[in-house]
Amino acid sequence: xxxxxxxxxxxxxxxxxxxxxxxxxxxxxxxxxxxxxxxxxxxxxxxxxxxxxxxxxxxxxxxxxxxxxxxxxxxxxxxxxxxxxxxxxxxxxxxxxxxxxxxxxxxxxxxxxx
Length: 114
Hints:
By secondary structure, this protein is an all-alpha fold. The chain has helices spanning 7-20, 22-27, 31-37, 61-113.
């Protein structure tokens, strides 16, 4: 097993790190200190591609309110029409009943006179 950092690389690494932070100079003075305090981490990716999933609302707030308003208008319109159709149905029933009563009265009158 090899040690990291190697003696050759240790001086280069120490110079590079010491330029970045003064605190490193205080903690790492020898190669043994660097081997105890530094870590080499290799990360391997199984794939370099990634899948990004984003969600987007299909309806905006304005479109949703417009659709609701249209449906409510449609239902109110249908219910108003239904009320008028029901009233017309009642009137038609009364007309039919009146015709039957009138024709029944005429039939009774013709029987009485004969």
